[in-house]
Amino acid sequence: MATDALRAQVAAKWQESFARLNHNEPGIVGLLNFTQAWNIARECIRPRGLDEPDSFTQYDKSTFQASFELLNKSRRLPILLESLLEDMRKRFPVIKEEVDRYTLEYERTSDTSFILNLVFRLLKWYKKWLPMQELGATLHSAFVLSFQTHLFSVLTPTFVRGFKDLCASTLPSTDPRTNVPAPNVEMWQAFEILGLLDRYENIIASVGYEHIEAHVVAACSGRWSNPMLGQLRKWMTDKVVPWMLLMYARNATTADDARAMLQNVGSRFDFHMAKTLCDLRTKEIFDIIIDYPDSSGALQDLKECLHRVDQRASLVHTLRKANQKRLLHPGADTRLILTQYVATIKCLRVVDPPGVLLFKVADPIRRYLRERPDTIRCIVSNLVGDDDSGDSLVDESEPIQPLQQYELDDYLDSNWEPEPVDAGPDFRANKPSDVISTLVSIYDSRDLFVKELQLLLAQRLLAIIDDDTEKVEKERRNVEILKIRFGEAALQICEVMLKDMTDSKRIDGHVQSQKASIVHPIILSKQFWPMLEATEIVMPGQFRTLQDEYAKEFTAFKPDKKLRWLPHLGTVHLVLHLEDRIVEVDVPPLEAAFIELFSQQDVWTMDELIAKVGSSVDGTAALKALLTWVDLGVLKEQAENTFRLLEVAESAADGAREWRTVTKSVIELPSAPSIQQQQAEQMRVYWKFIEGMLTNLGSLSLDRIQAMLKLAPGYDQTIEQLGIFMEAARLEELVVVRDGMWKLTPK
Amino acid sequence: MKVEVKRWHAVAQWRWDTGVLSEDSGKGDDDEGEVCGICRVPFEGCCPVCKVPGDDCPLIWGECSHVFHMHCLLKWIGTQASKQQCPMDRRPWGERHPLAHFFFRICHNQCM
User: Fold this and answer.
1) Which CATH number fits domain A531-668: 3.40.50.1970, 3.30.450.180, 3.30.230.130, 3.40.630.30?
2) What residues form the membrane-spanning segments (chain A) (predicted)?
């Protein structure tokens, strides 16, 4: 039940509204006018079908102006706007239907022209519905906003895909033969008017990025000989920038204007190009390094890209992973690893002169190499230029220089620069040193190298037969070169070895002039040659005589010296006169000793033979020697371990071999024990000390043993090596260990 | 069968003949060899001053039958403290006549 007050209130409101719409016109004329104006206004801004005539054809322009004035005065414009938007919402399904139809068509055919047509079609609708400018900015912007909102709500993901394809189709093709499509300015304008540019900016940019990526990959992958970055930049200017102009500099009037607008987005694209190239090269880095120096162009690119894009960490990561997978496994030859390591050094020095990248990448390789037993041998044989292995690690053109040692910081260095920011804590800014220094620095001590060098030199010198002075000269040259690297003192021993060679020759010359002999020995200075595997052979028969005669002559020449033969080394050139054939052959001394024994007696068992030449010859070596003769058809294994001389060759049926004169060479490099064996040999000396200690003091810790051994002359083993040795002794059941205390096994 | 040796490319080591009696038994002095009483380097090595062994760093035989690197001994004799004595037995140093060495050996061989 309404009260009077309420009634009065409602009445007052009614009066007020009425007065506003009626404008103080008599009766309801004002109200009628308003109604008419409202209708006209609604009619002319109503969203129409495309085939309906425009509002201007029906109404005069001034009519609307008047109607609008009237509505404005009555403050009904907001309501009008609302009804317009409502109408639009109601009409929008028509557009949606159209969008669906076109996108469906596109989905079916994947033809971007459908999308293009759809866009133009949408533009038509938009233009049809767009209210006149005169109606004010509020109405206009409200319309645009609402239209776009509706439009975006009906655009399906398919449309987005089609839109992307459409953009992509406007890009210049990667194939240089096809022409650049003429820029479709209208299309871009349509995009802008419909607000598609702003909404799908990311998509358009990604189209550009993908285009760049595709081009970079197509143009650059696998091509490492020349720097590509310059070409790519040119391509960007020629092909991509015009495309970008359409979009990002559409409002530009002058060239400067355009440049300013492009600056931001252009540098983004340039960055993306550099990143793509960098990624590509990073992916290929392992193969680029293999190809070095043919791949220096790629390295230049990589260097520049890394300046632009911070991808250093990823480069290190990728390369380390590739190395782990492709290089540092048991299947890879040590030589190969070294070659790749050297190439890595050279490549990364190009990319990153301060060497931070190199340091990070090289670390695992160096650690791995350190564990390989033949690394030193490989490096050393490369140093002395072993010819059997193709390319050398060392660049011939690189000047030979002394090995560089890590130097402490020079505080007075005026060119000092701080370490690069991404350097790790243990990074050492080593100056660009030569490859050999780097290789040698894999190991903490260079003594190992010098030892290995001596060993190798000894082997090679002993392998020289026929007084080949040229070969000795070659070794001398090598040693001279190595002296520059390792220093005079370290190679003193090698020097003596070479001197022994020439001295031997001189002495031999003298001895021969006194009394001709068929023996031509190399006379070594014992202390200066590496321990050579010692097997004592007592040379039988005429060999013994030959030795003694020569030794006598030697002592006559050098009264204060005498000779001690190393009968297991060297080679003998023999001619065997058999009943039906002559065999001429170069053999090691053990073989010669055996065959000499066979000349005394036709059948021997292996044990008898060994007993004759000295018991230090082991079974395998003896068997090998005998088999050499079996291979030559001189001996035959009659029963197990019993051999018979074949005075007459066995019938050809037994083995179609050619007898007559067999000239063969069965020489191998004299084997020398490896460094490890030598170390073990050294440790054996110290075992006596250890045994004594443990006998006197009961049980001792490893530290104590090490500390006490340090007092022994010439002891240079680390505690780890001692540990390994003690462990070996434990396995031999010489010692027992409990709680880190070692003691002798109780007897 | 007759084995004819055309050429033997052998390997040997030289040793100083220090007149040690065990010389021909061959096995006794196998590895270590003897060392100079002054520098403790094997005779076949060289004294601390030299770099090349052998004739460039010869031995010296004393009358007292002690043997040293010549350079080591001369240095010792050159010092005041030496009083011209053999560092091993403090007898007056005198060099054995080079030929004495031979006579000694010849006698020795004959005795054998």
Assistant:
1) 3.30.230.130
2) none
